[in-house]
Amino acid sequence: MDINTLEKRIDELIALCDELESKHLAMENDRESWIHERTSLLEKNEMTKAKIEAMIMRLKSLEQD
Questions:
Q1: 20 to 30 A Cα–Cα from 54, which one of 5, 10, 37, 63?
Q2: 65 residues of the chain, pLDDT tens digit each
Q3: Predicted TM-score of the model (pTM)
Q4: Distance from the Cα of residue 2 to its chain's centroid
Q5: Rounded to the nearest 5 degrees, what angle is found at the Cα of 51, between the Cα atoms of 35 and 55?
Q6: How large is the C-alpha radius of gyration of the chain?
Q7: Measured at the alpha carbon of residue 10, what is the angle toward residues 3 and 8, in degrees to the nearest 5?
């Protein structure tokens, strides 16, 4: 293997490393976004459950009157 072939191969590996690093950062950003969205949806779910439970309690109290 001559020096030019070796240099070319090293350049290709460097480019591949750069590409992989970029993809990794994008995946980490997506992950953070999904975690935030999940947290938000869980909070909304809990608020909705509380509202439904409150409605059921009101309906039960109206039913008893």
A1: 37
A2: 799 999 999 999 999 999 999 999 999 999 999 999 999 999 999 999 999 999 999 999 988 87
A3: 0.68
A4: 46
A5: 160
A6: 28
A7: 55
